[in-house]
Amino acid sequence: MRRAKAAAAPYLLALPAWIWFAIFFVVPIAAMASVSLTTGNLLEGFQQTFSVSNYADAIGQYHTQLVRSLIYGGTATVVMLLLAYPVAYWIAFKGGRNKSVYLFLLLLPFFVSFVLRTISWGFILADDGILFGPLKSAGLLPGDFHVLATDVAVIGGLVYNFLPFMVLPIYVALERVDPRVIEAAYDLYASRWAAFRRVVLPLSLPGVFAGVLMTFVPATADPVNARVLGGTGNTMIGNIIQTEYMTNNDYPTASALSFTLMAVLLVGIFVYARSLGTENVLEAAAR
Amino acid sequence: MTKTQAGTGEAAASPTAPEVPAIELDGVVKEYLAQGEVVQAVKGVTLSIAEGEFFSLLGPSGCGKTTTMRMIAGFEDPSRGAVRLRGQDVTGVPPNKRDVNMVFQSYALFPHMSVWENVAFGLRRRKVAEAEIKRRVGEMLEIVDLAGREKRRPREMSGGQQQRVALARALVNRPRALLLDEPLGALDLKLRQAMQIELKRIQREVGITFVYVTHDQSEALTMSDRIAVMNNGVIEQLAPPREIYERPATAFVAGFIGTSNLLTGTVERVADGCAVLAAGESGRVLVADGAHRVGDRIVVTVRPEKIVISTEEPAGEVSAVRGTVSEVVYLGTYNSYVVGLPGGTEVTVFQQNAHDSSTTAERGDSVWLSWQPQHSYAIGS
C-alpha cells in the first residue's frame, strides 16, 4: 500500500502542471483548430463547416507576409548566432571569476518591458530623432536618410530583443565543455582553429540548437518589432494574425494563419534538426 | 628498441654519454601568483630522461609533479629554466607543436567522436594520408586490445577501455615521449593492477619513453626504470626503484615509500668502516654506509622486513636493540609487530609467516630486534 503511494507520488506531483497544460494549451489549440475550420462572420455567427478553404484563402492572401516573416526571423537568427557565439565563448572561457556579472549585464535589459524597449528604439531611430536629427543638421547624413520602416530596423529590433535567448544556451553548452578535452586537442597537434572546429564547436552544438529554437520561433512570429519599428512594407505574419483577430474579427482566417505558421515552423525546425545531425545534437546533449 | 627491454627496475636505462636524452629539464621553476603572493609550485627541477625509459614522477598531491609534467607537455611555461626534447629547446613552444603526447587523468576523450575518430585525431591533424591512418589506427587498437570496438562512443565503454582508448590516441602518433598523468587513478584496484602490467607491456612493445605521474608508490615501484620522488616542488631523490626503496635519501622518501623506521643516535665509535650508535643499555645500531665521525648525530632508516625479532640476544656484528612489543597484527602472509624502544621510539617489524604461523612474541613481551649493518641507512646527512 505504502509502496503504491510512493510510486504514485511523482505522478500526483506532476498533476497540477498537467492540468494547467491541458486547460491552457491543449484546449485552446483544439478550439483554435476547430475555429479555423468554420465559416461565417461575427454578426451572423460561425458555422463549423470543416472547410479547408480558409487555409487556401489565408495563404493565398498573406503568403507575402508569411515568407517575409520567415526571412526576417531567419536573418535575425543568423545575425544573433554570429553575435551571440563569440560573446558566449568569451564569457565561458575568458570570463573568469566575473562570469555571473557578465551574464547579469546581458540580462539587465529584461528588467524593462519588451514593448517599452522596442518603443525606445523607435525614438532613438526616428528620422529626425535624437540620433539622426543632429547628424542630419550637421550635414553628416542626407536629409532623406532613415532607418525606421526598413527591413534593417525590424531585423535589428528582433536581434536586439531575442539576443540573450541565443547567448544563454550557447554559454551553458560551452561551460560544460571539459577544458581538459580542449587541452587534449592541443596535445594532439590541433591548431587553435582545429581545436575549435573539431572539438569545441561540435560539443557546443546542443546549445546552438537550443538557442536557434528559442529565437527563431518567437522572432518569426513576433508582431511587436514590425509594428513599432517597421512600416507598411515590413508587415509580418504576426501583425496580420493580430489584425484579423482584433480588428477584422475574422477568427477563421486568423486561426488558419496561426496554424499555418505553426506548421511551417515545426517543419522548419524538423528539417533543421535533421540537417544539423540529430544524432550529434542528442548524443552531445545526453553526455 | 632499447635497453629497457630488460624490464625490471634494476636494468635502468641510465643515460649513456653519446645518446641525447629524450627529455631534459634544466633548473625549471614554476611560479604562480595566488592572491597577490608568489607561490612556487616547482622550485628548480633538473633531470634528464633517457630514450625508451619508463620514468616516474612520484609524490603526494601538491608536490609539483603534475605541474612538472604539464611543462614538459607545453601546457605551462616555466617561469625560469629550460625544457629540452631530444636536445632541442622547446621552452615556450605550444603543446600542438611538441612531439610529446599526454594521457590525461580523466582520459579527456572526445565525447562526440567514436573510438576510431578519437584515435585518428592526432594523425588527421598532421595530415597523414588516409590509408596510413587506417593502418596505424587499426594496428594501435590491436595493441590495446580494442579491435572491433571502433564505432563505440567513449561513454559506452568501461573505465578500463576508455583508459586504453586514451593510451592508443596518444601512442598512435609515435611521440618522442608519452606523458601519463595518474592514468590509473580512476580504476578499481584489480583493474589497476592489470593495467600496470598492460602499460609496461605496451611500453616495451612500442619502445617509447614514458613519463608517469603518480602518487601511488607501489605503482611507481612496479613499473618504473627510475623514479623521481618529489615533495614541495623539489626532487627529493632520483634513482631506480630498488635504490629508492632500499636506500631512501631523505626522511621524506623513507616515510613516503613503504613503511620505514627512523632511529636517531650519536656516533659512539667507528670500527671496521662501521659507525656504531649507542641505543639504550647494551643496544647498538651499526651503520655501514657513509663516513661518520664520533659525536655525529645521525638519522638511520631501517625497513621493517629487514629486522629480525627474537627473545634471545642476537650474536655477531649486527645492530641490536631491546624493546617491548606493544602490538601484534596478523596480516596473512606476514605478522606486523610494533615494538617500543626505551627512548619512546616505535619500531615496526614485519615477519614472514613462512614456516610457522604462530607469533614469535606476544604483546608486552620484552624482545631483541636485530638487523645487518648494510640495512641501516643514514639519511639527510
From TrEMBL, chain A:
Chain ranges of the ABC transmembrane type-1 domain: 66-272
UniProt superkingdom: Bacteria
Compartment(s) of residence: Cell membrane
GO CC aspect terms: plasma membrane
Similarity comment: family membership: Belongs to the binding-protein-dependent transport system permease family. CysTW subfamily.
Single GO BP term: transmembrane transport
Gene3D superfamilies in the cross-refs: MetI-like (1.10.3720.10)
InterPro entries: MetI-like (IPR000515), MetI-like_sf (IPR035906)
Pfam families found in the cross-reference section: BPD_transp_1
Organism whose genome encodes this protein: Planomonospora venezuelensis
Keyword Transmembrane helix included in the entry's annotation: yes
Parts of the chain that traverse the membrane: 12-33, 70-91, 103-125, 145-174, 195-217, 254-273
Protein name: Spermidine/putrescine transport system permease protein
Keyword terms: Cell membrane, Membrane, Transmembrane, Transmembrane helix, Transport
Main location: membrane
UniProt membrane topology term: Multi-pass membrane protein
TrEMBL record, chain B:
Any one Gene Ontology cellular component term annotated for this protein: ATP-binding cassette (ABC) transporter complex
InterPro entries with a match to the protein in the record: AAA+_ATPase, ABC_SmlMolc_Importer, ABC_transporter-like_ATP-bd, ABC_transporter-like_CS, Mo/tungstate-bd_C_term_dom, P-loop_NTPase, PotA-like, PotA_ATP-bd
Single Gene Ontology MF annotation: ATP hydrolysis activity
EC number: 7.6.2.11
Domain of life: Bacteria
Sequence ranges assigned to domain ABC transporter in this UniProt record: 23-257
Top-level EC class: translocase
Catalytic activity, reaction form: ATP + H2O + polyamine-[polyamine-binding protein]Side 1 = ADP + phosphate + polyamineSide 2 + [polyamine-binding protein]Side 1
Coiled coil (residue ranges): none
One Pfam match: ABC_tran
Keyword Membrane set for record: yes
Function (record text): Part of the ABC transporter complex PotABCD involved in spermidine/putrescine import. Responsible for energy coupling to the transport system.
Family label: Belongs to the ABC transporter superfamily. Spermidine/putrescine importer (TC 3.A.1.11.1) family.
Name of the featured protein: Spermidine/putrescine import ATP-binding protein PotA
Organism of provenance: Planomonospora venezuelensis
